[in-house]
Amino acid sequence: xxxxxxxxxxxxxxxxxxxxxxxxxTDKVVNDKATASLRTALGLLTAEAEGWLKQGSWSVTDKAxxxxxxxxHDYVSQAPYWWPDPARESEGGKPYIERDGQKNPEVLTxxxxxxVEKVFRxxxxxxxxxxxxxxxxxxxxxxxxxxxxxVAPATAMRPNxxxxxxxxxxxxxxxxxxxxxxQAYASVLDAAxxxxxxxxxxxxxxxxxxxxxxxxxxxxDFLAWLVNxxxxxxxxxLRNNHGSFAAMLVASIAAYVGDKxxxxxxxxxxxxxxxxATIEADGQQPAELARTRSWHYSTFNxxxxxxxxxxxxxxxERLDKxxxxxxxxxxxxxxxxxxxxxxxxxxxxxxxxxxxQFEQFAAADLVRAAAAAGHAASQAAVPKLMMPPDGDTxxxxxxxxxxxxxxxxxxTPGAAKPM
Length: 419
Fold this sequence. Notes:
The protein is mainly alpha-helical. The chain is built from 15 helices and 4 strands. The protein has a domain of 174 residues: Glycosyltransferase. The longest helix is centred in the last third of the chain and has 28 residues. The radius of gyration is 21 Å and the shape is globular. It comes from Sporothrix bragantina. Pfam families: Alginate_lyase.
């Protein structure tokens, strides 16, 4: 018996509760194909969760030295596509020069970026595994991971990204560094909701009321930095995937901390300003098609926008209960989704643009999300989709994830997993 419906931010809590109930009623549906798919996904999820139990926690204070601010609690990362200039070898290659789509392995020496990706992924997987299995080991470790990075004074990150994606010899941080967080952080908010177990007092799973309050306070401060700060405003104004992810990040955090007005502003901005400026009538996304990995960035941008559409759905449902009308983002996205459907179902030959590293499965989640929202063309396409090569957990976490990250040569596909 499912004892609560989580009030998740992006994921539909009612759907999660229904999935859990279906898994628990195995005797009645033993021959059901959908339930068999859930069991397979649960096996993948718990196997990954077991891997995360063996590592972490991580802290922003683990880096060898502080960044430009001199404060070890400030997050620091290096721009991935910038390389030493061979013509300036005597000056350490500075200022660096850009090679779009080619990831400089030097960025991995900045442990904040490496570790925060582990924080995001592990907390999300562990919290989902806890929700479906009630195994408190997963909750306790997720609690430790989140507490260490966000809450404990000795190890917590300060709620800013002032020094994200710096370029050696050029700057000490950039607005577009916000994408270090925006592409995956929203899942962490759902993880925290799953750990809280509804409105219970005393969660008995390692995540305390003090942890929950501290994490919410951190997010309120981070939201203020995003909305009011120069970097946040600059990133939000971009008419490409950076702007899409910034809007999604702000809306998700606002929903998590209960800032209903900010959520409504983000949805209205996306519907009336951002999407019309970034997606053409025929569904093309000019800013993403101009990239060396046009397929990756077209699906990447849609990942942000489909997740924002799901946050908008949660907000609209709340407003509906109050007798008000909430805006829906989905109809503004269908042309762009239909533009990627031929390649999503037919492969590289159906994508009429250059791409350095085409991965057909990158579109799987966003098409399934659109299908769930009622888009007929996506519903028809679902049986023809290519699934991610390292296993499909969509049945347990039906919200888009980044399935096709930009990788270094030789790096295996799929999302970050335990090492």
